[in-house]
Design goal:
heterotrimer; A alpha+beta (376); B mainly alpha (264); C mainly alpha (290); B: 264 residues; mainly alpha; MetI-like fold; 11 helices; C: 290 residues; two-stranded antiparallel sheet; two-stranded antiparallel ribbon; 12 helices; globular; binds adenosine-5'-triphosphate; binds magnesium ion
């Protein structure tokens, strides 16, 4: 973990008490030629909403299965709730999973599906009944009791799968793209419900998704994965504001990339020359070697457009508008300045369209504090 | 789908094919209600021959043998075949690739080859082991041999179609290996097992060739009885008996089809 | 299930698969090996087995008996092959349209039409065969029609055997073929039609390649058992239509010459193994149509 920069303090999740649910150390798993997990090390706090985010095939499910005990590492160590997980069989771990495909038992109705885990523990029927009813109440599937999985909609299946896992009161709940198969509206609603559920239960949620918005909205921390590795682990705000690689910058939200070269570094500021002009950037985490090639990143909504003024000032680029796309809440512009294409978006804060038109020449201002300097 | 309806010519030809397939079945059923004692002439409707079966001790003992044989062999072959299918799909072990070939031998070889091969085995062993003297037990052994592959293939198809996540979910929810098998795997396999057993039963019921060679005195089954009656000249009560067997086969087939459909 | 071939799995597999595999070993492979070995020995004066190694049985099979050249057994072999091939061809003529017919039916009728093919498949072959005796007998339904047409020498005889064979094995042909026809991508045929191809060319180039696995499977599944059939020629053929199956039965029955019967069984087995090899190589489908 990196210490957050002072300006972002307000976004940081409340400090987490207690120890770690998961301590993974150099976990590696290969399937033939494919390295699904490549020396993954991560610590996940108790009670944290932790997301694994990454493109398809990057090893998210594999890591999750390892925590659940359905997959064993080739090498590396996994400590689960303070205990070495190597000889801890899946069915004894206080961990439950909401599977990517839900995996509801087709031969059991909803109640029996939910009660399955408790029955396996041979709890008294009266207690099973009480707990199952409680959880079904909470997940609002009471009226589906007698139905079979084949008779449920996608959203209902998702709730049953959630209830079936939660009723066991696990210490860690693993969710593998639980909303992946649902439509956007239902997904937004269930995102909120899941988030509230996690706060209420206070248990660790490890949530796999390849939807960046979902991860940003719900998580305390996010691990961005690529090709079997964790490439950055941070709070949502940190990941968005301070990506450390181009991959992370591009994976989370839209961004503009401008390639350049450091020409000067002094008094907390770095000067970068690019095809679009000179940029001043706040001194960040990377070493300001003169002449080194760098990439500047800026989010489209941070660029400030104004009517053309005098050019030649640093961080100010005169550009021509190539395209305008109106999308309700905001208007997106495609621009080109000094042969460098970039995008910019403005919030439509009033009903009066006071934007710019195609072909117009404007001045684009790239605020120094919004520019991110990457050396890859 | 862009498939056009069958043309008239195709339909007529197919109707002819169905007629051809069902003519023998129909004739047996119809003649079982024919009052004439001899010959093919229609002499009025009667259910007399069905009643006559009850007064025919040979037919009754053959029916008893047939059911006993089919029941015992189905039980054994379903157990062995199901276990075989389970291990075949779930475990990796040396020689696993050869199982498929082994199972297809009894499906492909002519009945008569299996029949004489078993006859040879029994006659070589029986001087030492009285158990192998021809009779119902040797027939059960023979029937199980040709039933196992069918059971194993049907059950395996069911197992291979199961979502592996279901069993993982059971583990995840705290089921031990045994509990997982008992509460998830076995119930999910059940439609396949039932279909397989039904198939095995029908196969045994219909088998003539293997039974013919491996039966001994006193272990005559219905197909053998029918064969010897046919050789002597068909009597109407044999038609009645055959009709009952056809009925059993149809019931078996339809229930297998229904179970298979439920499998999907 | 993650680590292939570890020894614990092998032990568990041995417990689970063991009984079934041992059963097949003892009651399938051992008898086959016995047949093979017995085919190389000779028969004693009273039909008992005499364990002296000889090639005599195979010599007799290809026509070089003790009394000089005798074409009886080569004839039986050839007749079996010819009858099997003819049956397969007739099943093709009859079954191909049927498979296309079923595939073109609207969905709800299709299952029923298929069931109507499956039912005879699982109905006693013995019963269906003796029913043809009734039908083809001179006073039977077909028999009398045929007599009016001037065909008297039908039953018993080769033609009767063929009718019985086609009727009994038609489902064996239609079921695997249908499995392929069902999966046909008709848009290919339509595209060919659009390009002006003749009906035959559409079938030849757009349809046939798609159904060839099912077609091969069907033909082999008819040809092999038809060649080794024993009940149908026994009930419908006369003395002149002895086939491989009957010949084997004769040697193990009345003639009590088991070694010679075993040699014929080995010939039948060799045929099957060749057929199975073709089946696996050509069709790639492993009995999923069952
Ligand atoms: N049992 C397996 N056998 C072989 N390869 C596997 C197996 N499981 C996973 N892999 C491979 O490991 C890599 C990581 O797979 P994983 O399922 O963890 O990806 P993922 O991040 O969950 O992807 P998705 O978002 O598509 O679910 C993939 O390349 C996959 O093909
Ligand atoms: Mg996944």
């Amino acid at each position: 973990m990196t210490a957050p920069t002072p300006t972002l303090e307000k976004y940081v999740a409340p400090p987490l008490s207690g120890g770690f649910s998961i301590e993974a150390d150099q976990l590696t798993r290969r399937f033939g030629e494919v390295t699904a997990l490549d020396r993954v090390s991560v610590r996940i706090h108790e009670g944290e909403f932790f997301s694994l985010l990454g493109p398809s095939g990057c090893g998210k499910t594999t890591l999750l299965r390892m925590i659940g005990g359905l997959e064993m590492p080739d090498s590396g160590r996994l400590i689960l709730l303070g205990r070495d997980a190597a000889d801890w069989p899946a069915h004894q771990r206080p961990v439950n999973t909401v599977f990517q495909s839900y995996a509801l038992f087709p031969h059991l109705n909803v109640v029996d599906n939910v009660a399955f885990g408790l029955r396996m523990k041979r709890l008294p029927e009266s207690e099973i009944h009480r707990r199952v009813q409680g959880v079904m109440e909470m997940t609002r599937i009471r009226e589906l009791e007698r139905r079979f999985p084949a008779e449920l909609s996608g959203g209902q299946k998702q709730r049953v799968a959630l209830a079936r896992a939660v009723v066991n009161e696990p210490k860690v709940l693993l969710l593998d793209e639980p909303l992946g198969a649902l439509d956007l509206k239902l997904r937004k609603q269930l995102q909120i419900e899941l988030h509230q559920l996690q706060r209420r239960l206070g248990i660790t949620f490890i949530y796999v998704t390849h939807d960046q918005d979902e991860a940003l909205v719900m998580s305390d921390r996010i691990a961005v994965m690529n090709e079997g590795r964790i490439v950055q682990l941070d709070t949502p705000a940190q990941l968005y504001e301070r990506p450390r690689t181009r991959f992370v910058a591009e994976f989370l939200g839209a961004c503009n990339l401008i390639e350049g070269e450091i020409v000067e570094a002094a008094s907390g500021q770095i000067k970068v020359r690019s095809a679009a002009g000179m940029f001043m950037v706040a001194m960040g985490s990377i070493a300001p070697d003169i002449r080194s090639k760098v990439t500047l990143v800026i989010r489209p909504e941070r660029i400030v457009l104004s009517a053309l003024t005098q050019s030649g000032q640093p961080n100010r680029v005169s550009a021509e508008i190539n395209d305008v796309i109106y999308s309700g809440a905001e208007t997106r512009y495609s621009l080109c300045g000094g042969a460098v294409p970039f995008h910019c978006c403005l919030i439509n804060s009033s009903a009066v369209r006071d934007g710019f038109a195609v072909g117009e020449s404007v001045s684009a201002y790239f605020p120094p504090e919004s520019l991110i300097l990457l050396n890859d | 789908m862009a498939v056009n309806r069958p043309s008239l010519r195709l339909s007529l030809w197919s109707a002819l094919a169905y007629l051809f397939l069902y003519a023998p079945i129909a004739v047996v059923v119809i003649y079982s209600f024919n009052a004439a004692r001899f010959g093919a002439a229609w002499n009025g409707f009667t259910t007399h021959w069905y009643a006559a079966i009850w007064d025919n001790p040979q037919a009754l003992s053959a029916a008893r043998n047939t059911l006993l044989l089919a029941g015992c062999s189905t039980l054994i072959s379903t157990l062995l075949g199901t276990a075989l299918a389970y291990g075949w799909t779930r475990f990796h072990f040396p020689g696993r690739r050869w199982i498929s070939g082994l199972l297809h031998i009894p499906i492909f070889i002519p009945d008569i080859v299996l029949a004489v091969a078993l006859l040879l085995l029994y006659s070589l062993v029986s001087p030492w082991l009285r158990f192998f003297e021809l009779g119902l037990p040797t027939m059960v052994l023979a029937h199980v041999t040709f039933q196992i592959p069918f059971v194993a293939i049907v059950v395996r198809a069911r197992l291979a179609g199961l979502d592996p996540a279901l069993e993982e979910a059971a583990r995840d929810l705290g089921a031990s290996g045994r509990q997982k098998f008992r509460h998830v795997t076995l119930p999910l396999m059940m439609p396949g097992i039932l279909a397989a057993a039904m198939l095995a039963f029908t196969l045994s019921l219909d088998d003539f060739v293997v039974s013919f060679f491996t039966s001994g005195p006193g272990s005559t089954t219905l197909p053998i009885l029918i064969y010897s009656s046919v050789k002597r000249g068909i009597t109407p009560d044999i038609n009645a008996l055959s009709t009952l067997i056809i009925l059993a086969s149809i019931l078996g087939t339809v229930s297998v089809m229904l179970l298979q459909r439920k499998n999907r | 299930m993650t680590d292939p071939g570890n020894s614990r799995q092998t032990v568990r597999a041995a417990f689970v698969c063991g009984p079934g595999l041992i059963w097949l070993l003892v009651f399938l492979l051992v008898p086959m090996l016995l047949i093979l070995s017995v085919s190389f020995i000779s028969r004693g004066a009273y039909g008992e087995l005499e364990w002296t190694v000889t090639l005599e049985n195979y010599r007799r099979l290809i026509g070089f008996g003790a009394l000089g050249f005798d074409p009886l057994y080569p004839q039986i072999l050839l007749r079996s092959l010819a009858l099997g091939a003819t049956t397969a061809f007739l099943c093709l003529l009859m079954g191909m349209p049927l498979a296309f017919f079923i595939a073109r039916l609207p969905g709800r009728f299709r299952a029923a039409a298929l069931l109507l093919v499956v039912i005879p498949f699982w109905t006693s072959l013995l019963i269906r065969t003796y029913a043809w005796q009734i039908l083809l007998a001179p006073e039977g339904w077909f028999g009398s029609i045929l007599r009016h047409l001037g065909m008297t020498e039908l039953y018993p005889g080769t033609l009767a055997v063929l009718i019985g064979m086609v009727c009994d094995f038609l489902p064996f042909f239609v079921l695997p073929l249908y499995a392929s026809v069902e999966k046909i991508n008709w848009s290919l045929a339509e595209a060919a039609m659009d390009l002006g191809a003749s009906q035959w060319n559409v079938f030849r180039h757009a349809i046939l390649p798609q159904i060839s696995p099912g077609l091969t499977a069907g033909l082999i599944l008819v040809f092999l058992p038809a060649t080794g059939q024993f009940v149908i020629p026994d009930l419908l053929g006369g003395a002149k239509t002895v086939l491989l199956g009957n010949a084997i039965q004769q040697q193990f029955g009345q003639s009590r010459d088991w070694p010679f019967g075993a040699a014929m069984a080995v010939a039948a087995l060799a045929l099957v193994i060749a057929g199975m090899w073709l089946f696996y190589r050509k069709s790639g489908q492993k009995g999923e149509w069952l």
